[in-house]
Amino acid sequence: MIFDSLDHIDVYKNTHPGLYRGLKLLAETDFSQLEDRWHEVDGKELYFLLQTYETQPDNPTPETHDQYIDIQCLLSGVEALGVGLREEMTDVAEVHPERDICLHHGPADTKIILTPGKFAALFPGDAHAPNMAWDAPTRVRKVVVKVRV
Description:
CATH topology: Jelly Rolls
Distance between the termini: 14 Å
Oligomer: single chain
């Protein structure tokens, strides 16, 4: 997992090439003119989801992905993101292979606070519980970039 500011993306230039492309996309795109939905950039190699929602008090089913890195970045609002290790999840709640998502039960009790300009890059070993309220439920607008590993 990486947690950082979009101001520092050049640090990741020599990492996974798709990761750097995804970070550049976040830093250089005016998302205010785009509607909430899936947006294709490079087929199934790189795409993103824009979404607006109310954060929830809790997320009891952390998720993992096998084929993609998630880069989560808020455009507005504040959100708590619980993170943990995939191998520490206690059991599988649901599996949706067509969407590359596995929902688990288990500890994702390390909290990261996402605010505009910060991002979390979550790799296949990273269980993560997004969409959680920090102080109180609030409306957020978020972009999730999907990068094939």
